[in-house]
Amino acid sequence: MDTKAPMPAERLLDLEDVHVHFPMREGLVKAVNGVTYHVDKGEVLGIVGESGSGKSITARAIMRLLPRNAQAAGGRIRLRPRTGEEFELSALERNSRAVRQVRGNHIGMIFQEPMTALSPVHTIGDQICRTIQLHMGLDKRAARARAADLLARVRMPRPQQMLDNYPHQLSGGMRQRAMIALAISCNPSLLIADEPTTALDVTTEAQILDLLRELQAESGMAIVFITHNFGVVADIADRVAVMYLGRIVETASVDDIFYAPKHPYTRALLNSIPRLGVDQGRRLPTIPGMVPDPFSVPAGCAFNPRCTHAVAGVCDVETPPQRQFANGQSARCHFADTFAEAAHA
Amino acid sequence: MTAFIFRRALLSIPTLIFISFISFVIIQLPPGDFVTAYAAQLRQSGEYLSAAQEAMLREQFGLNDPMLVQYWRWITNIVFRGDFGFSLEWNAPVSTLIWDRLGLTLAISSLSLVFTWLIAIPVGVYSATRQYSFFDHLFTIFGFLGKGTPDFLLALVLMWIGFAYLHIDVGGLFSPQYQNAPWSLDKVINLLTHLWIPLVVLATGGAAGLIRVMRANMLDELGKPYVETAYAQGLSERQVVWNYPVRVALNPFISTVGWSLPALFSGDVITAVVLNLPTTGPLLLKALQTQDMYLAGSFILILSVFTVIGTLVSDILLAWFDPRIRYA
């Protein structure tokens, strides 16, 4: 692909061959090893992967909020928010004025731990107002009124009073609502949700997912939804990208991911989800082996030692290319096309 | 909040009563009493009291009364008349002795506390946000040196430098010619040339430790998710650091600021002795050495009361500063 190619009109966020490395005493960890994905305007992209697959680090690379010991080792990240201007995020410094204009304004972010992701010594209202005042140039009163509106939009009871509450006075689900209100406070074009429901119980999780879907429909913002839970992805995503060891191994629409997965890793993950009423009394299939340690990623396809379809001499030698299919699906597997019709029936 | 303050203030009253009682018992502990000591003092100047005279004095001072009655007399004198008793060693009322030195003591101690904070907080924050940088290592070295060097040694070295190289007279707070002179611009300048040594000594000693505390607190806080949330709002690094983690990292400072109240009162005793400062510290030391019971007892009482009040102040400040405590 020509790296100078302009982004298509519907494109909001575009990642091309993004690399993030961590130099460690034991060696170089390539936490993100050539990730390419895009998000269109108003679309919900689910990113699924195990712990350590690099999904959160990729999100941090978009925000330019990588840990201090990380190296942005290449690739290109472009963002074209609703306002029309184009940001080449990968070229921006962590603390630069341009990237600060993007954060909180064009991209909102919600985090995994609602318990600790809000400042314990500031009220909910103060925290939201600070962001509003920073980006929207409103005075104190207007910002406070807007913050109350936002709390009402995320379905907080008694929004006016909630403004003056501290995070520790709220339950986990309420805190995550406050966090969402903070993230959408400046009408971002993109919301990055980094495992926003992992720390919540399933009932609250369902409510938060409903809320996110509603907000997305109302405002037309795009969402990058990071999770390790396929069930959540099925609930909320339009398209899904599956990550394994720093690479996107498969991208497809949510239906194709579930009904016609083309990468053995995706298939194995889906097979290891327990289903009610199916295969009773049998052991749940699991993926053999362990996630390799990050200092010795296998040669060739990183998944080959655990893959039941691996062919010696091919999979453990050559890095599989990205295979593109007519329906927009793509998979990084030498034999992706052989699984084309073999949807698990 | 008001209820919280009221409850805490109420709770400190029994503590204060208990402390005053203990202080009184300490005053009574040494063998003999005021009259014995007075008689001994007279003996030194060649006068003698007969046993009958001693007994009469005892009766007059009420020393034969039960301990509780004496305690009641002592404490009511303090509370209602500000009379802390009489120092035999100085031949003057205890309250006058302490009062004379209190102004300078508080001035030096609070100035050094302010300097300590002015140094410790920014340096601690810098060290944490630039962990393992050149200046972090430098501050760490100075911090440990400052912590490891006894204050009195630093005081001696500075006095020597001041005397040998800067040709200023050192020790005390004034040169002899200004000692009893009325206040004037020259006297103030003279005071400043003397004041810097105790300030440097006290501030470095205190700051060295607090830099480490602040650095450790900040490192804890900087790793917390709310800091990343703040960055994700588009705030600059300076806005994030000073508005969020510093606010939380200051809590241990707030919770101990009250304890500096008794320290403000007693000052740093050894440094004050070395530098010959007219503060309350050396007075306390001397009172203990000479068994000047009313003076020493009053000191113990005042220090303890200040500790209780200081803790109360800290609790209130912390509750005001940290909502998690206010609503707990």
TrEMBL record, chain B:
Keywords per UniProt: Cell membrane, Membrane, Transmembrane, Transmembrane helix, Transport
Listed SUPFAM superfamilies: MetI-like
Protein's UniProt keywords contain Transmembrane: yes
Major place of residence: membrane
GO biological process, one term: transmembrane transport
TM ranges: 9-29, 104-128, 149-168, 188-211, 253-275, 295-321
Name of the protein this chain belongs to: ABC transporter permease
Organism: Devosia geojensis
